[in-house]
Amino acid sequence: MSTQFSVAQNKELKIETKQTVKGDINPLSPAKAAFYSAILPGLGQAYNKRYWKIPVVYGAIGAGVYFIIDSNKKHNQYRDEYKKRLANGGRIDTSDPTYGKLSTESVIRGQKFYQKNRDLSVLITAGLYILNIIDANVDAHLLQFNVNDDLSLKPNLQTNPYTFKQDVGFTLTYQF
């Protein structure tokens, strides 16, 4: 039930009442959405009926997994080339089109570079996975949030009766 009191210029008091429908609140819904997203990324978003977020989740995590695999592959290639050079007594195979022109120091730098990128990609992907869980949890909380006109903040323009200028302000209305 909502009640609104307003006073007009002629000191008349109006009382308006209206019925409001209160929905059921499920306190376990956010935990369930987070659990579903932890089991399978995007499942919590489906539980919350936010289907448009599922491709975003899989795109973000998929990009992270791609960079992990790519950096790991290149790291292993540089590591294998370094091992091959150590087995040959430090000799460089100049006939190799990929690594033939690189010095041993460059091969070591390339190996460290791709190892650092792989590790950073693992951290970022883990962060995106956790963000997926947090998003499902927060979204489930906000689905239960009461959003109606009973609580509103509206700009208010009013003419000052003494100076006849416009006064600007905000009106906070809470109806219960």
From TrEMBL:
Keywords of the record: Membrane, Transmembrane, Transmembrane helix
Top-level taxon: Bacteria
Transmembrane segments: 51-69
InterPro entries: DUF5683 (IPR043738)
The keyword Transmembrane is annotated on this UniProt entry: yes
DUF5683 domain mapped to chain residues: 27-176
Protein known as: DUF5683 domain-containing protein
Source species: Flavobacterium terrigena
Taxonomic lineage: Bacteria, Pseudomonadati, Bacteroidota, Flavobacteriia, Flavobacteriales
